[in-house]
Amino acid sequence: MRPFRIAKANARRLPALGAAFFLALGLFAPQAHATPAKTPAPTTPTTTKSGTPRSIPLPKSPDTPRDARPLVSDAQAKPTAPAAGSAAEHRVAARQLAAAPCDVSGFTGKTGAALVQQVKGASLDCVNTLFQLTGNDAKAAFNEAQMVTVANALRDTSATYPGDNSTSASQLVFFLRAGYYVQWYNPDAVGAYGTNLQSAVRGALDGFFAAPHSKDVTEANGGTLAEAVTLIDSARENARYTGVVKRLLADYTTSWSGSMAAAVGNTETVISRGFELPEFTAALKADPSFATTVSSFVTRNSAQIDGGDIVTKIGIDLGNWVADDTLRAQGRPLVKDLINRYPLVGKTGPLTMNLLWFTEKKDGGNCSYYGTCDVPAKLVPLVLTSNHVCNPNLSIRSQSMTDQQFADTCTSLVNQDAFFHKIVKDNGPVKDDRNTSLEVVVFDDYYNYSLYAWSMYGIDVDNGGDYEEGHPDQAGNQARFIAHQASWLRPAFQIWNLNHEYTHYLDGRYDMYGDFDAGMTTPTIWWVEGLAEYVSYSYRGVHYDDAVTQAGKGTYKLSELFDTTYANSNQVRTYNWGYLAVRYMLQSHPQDVDAVLAKYRAGDWAGARTLLKTTIGTSYDADFATWLKACAADNCGSLPTTQAPLCTAADTRSYDKNCRRDGVAATTGNYSYNFLNLPAGVKQLTITTTGGTGNADLYYNGPSWATTSSYQSKSAGSGNAETLTITNPPAGYVYFSLYAQQGFNGVTVTTTYN
Fold first, then answer.
1. Given pLDDT bands bounded at 50, 70 and 90, which one contains residue 20?
2. Could you count the other beta carbons within 10 Å of the beta carbon of residue 226?
C-alpha cells in the first residue's frame, strides 16, 4: 500500500504495501548457491542515477512469490538448497518392497552392505521421510561414508539397470538426494562432503546415464530417471551432465507424459541453477549447441505453452545467456527470435515478458537490436482494456473491471477526500503542487501486475503496488497509482492497498512540499507511512490486528519512531509502528501534529525535525508506553468516523445504498417521508439519524408509507440518535419516516445496505 513519492528522475515513486521483503537481486536473477538460503533483510532504498526508478520496501500481498522476477503463472522462488522430496509423482512403476512402517533407526544404525540392503528394501515413501532428519540422526544416516556407500551401490546397480525399479535404483537415488538436502541445512551435524563423495556420485550418475535402459521412453523408467536428473543438481554436477540435459530436450516430444515429462521438467532445475556455478557457464561457452537445443525445444513444442508449462519455464532460462557476459553472444539472437516470435500477452506472455526482462535488465540499451523499444507503449492498450473516468481529477485504467466495480472504487476514493481533510485540517494544496489528477491502474491480480507493470511503467514489481507522484511542480504531470486486485479475497472485489495509496496521493498534495527527494531530507516516514495506514484502516473501519499486537510488545519509544527511515526499518516498524505513532500523536497531541504539518507544508524539513527531536524529544515516551499498554488491551482511543456522501437524487425524499441527507426537519406532529429502491438480494438495510434539535422518531414499513400507526419496526428514543436495521428487506421501493415527537431541525439521515 504504499506509494510514496518515489523518484523517476528525481520524481516520487513508491512501491505499494505488498512486499513481505525485497530482494536486492534483479528480477529473475539467479540466486547464490554458496550458502543456505536465509530470509533476506529488508532492502534499503538506494539513490540511483537520474532517471532510474527507485523502489521502497513494502509489505507484499499474500500472492507475492519469493521471487523478484516477472512470473510464470505458477512459479515460486527457486530455493538455493538441493530440491526436497517428494517423488510421489514418479512412483507409478516403483516396486514397494517394504510395506511395514518406516523405522529411521534402520538407516541410522547400519553401514556398508547392511545399509544398502536397508535402502533398497525400503519403500520410496519411507526414504522420503529421511528428508526431515536433523541432529544425530542426520549425521548417522548421511555422513560422507554413508553417502559414498550408497553412491557406489547405485553405480553397481546401474550396470544392469533394467529400465524399471525392480532393482531398487530409485531408492538409492532418492536416498542420495535426501542426503544432499539434509546436509545442506545441517552442515554442522552431518559434516562436510568432499572429493570421496564427489567421485562416488559421479561414478553412480555416469553409470546410470550410460545404462541403455535409462533412455527408455517408458513410465517405468521415467520415475527413476526423473529423480536422477534432480540428483545432478543436488550433487552440483550440472556442468558434467549438460549432455544428458541436451539429449532429453532434443528427444522430447509431446507424446512424453507422466514421469518422462517430469524428467524433462527437472532439467529446468539443472539449467537454471547451473548458472550459479562457474564450471557450468564454462561448459556452455564451450558448447554453443546447448543454447540452440534449448531454443529448438521451445519452438518445437510451442503448442504446449499455457503460461505455467515446462516449455515456458525452460525457455525463460535462455535469458540467463543474455545475463552472462561470456554467453551473451550465444544468447542474443535466440532470445531476440523468441521475443519477436510469440505474442506479449496471452499464453505466451510469461515467456516473452520474462525474456524481455532479461534484455532490459541484463543487456540494457540494446532495445533496437531486439526490436523492443516500443514494447511499453504497445503493452498499455493490449493489457489495460477497460477504462473509466470518475471525475475530471480521477480516472481508472484496468484489465477487467465491471461497471459496478468502477463505481464502487470511485465512490471509495472520492469519499475518502473528506475523511482525509478532516484529519489533517489542511488549507488546500501545498505551494507549487499541480498534481490535480490521479490515474489508478488496476491489474487483475499480482501475477499480471508482476508480468507487465515493470515494462509498462518502469517500476519494480516485487511489492503490492507502486505510487508515482512524478514532478508535482510541473504542469501536465500525471500522478499514478499502479495496483492489482486482491485475487485471494475473491469473490469479494478489492484493489490491494487502494486507500493506503490514495492517502499518499493526498498527503503528497496537501501536506508534503516538493517532490519525494525533498521530503526524504529528514526522517518523515513515521508520518508518511503511519498516516497512510491510519487513514486506510480508519476509513474502511477495519480493526488493525497486527498493530494492536505490536503495541503489546512495546518495542519502540515514540522518540525512536520519529527517526524511522526506509533504510533503518522493516515492515513492522514502517507500517505497524508508524500507524501507532501517528494514532497516538493525533489523539494525544493534535496541536503538535498541526505544528509539524505546518513545517512539512512549507518544506521546512529541518524545522519539523527540530520540533520532533528537540522540542518534543523524549518527553512523550513514557506516556506513549502507557498508551501502548492500553492499546494492547484494545483500548487505543476513538477513531474518526466516516460520513457517508450526500444523496444525489433530485427528490429529497429519495435515499440510496450509502448516502446521507443533512438538515432534515419537520414540525411537531408531522413527518419527513422517505424511501429507497432496493435491488434484489439485499441482506441488511440500516437507517440512522443523528444530530440536530428536537426529537425525531424513526419508523420503517417495508413496501408502504411508514407512520406511527402503520410500521414494521421503529426506533423512538428521547433524542435524534435513532437506528433501524432491517434484515432481508424486500426488493423494490421500501419506505421509512421521521416523526416529529417534538419539532426537529438539522437532523442527518443516513442509509446503507449490503
1. very low
2. 25
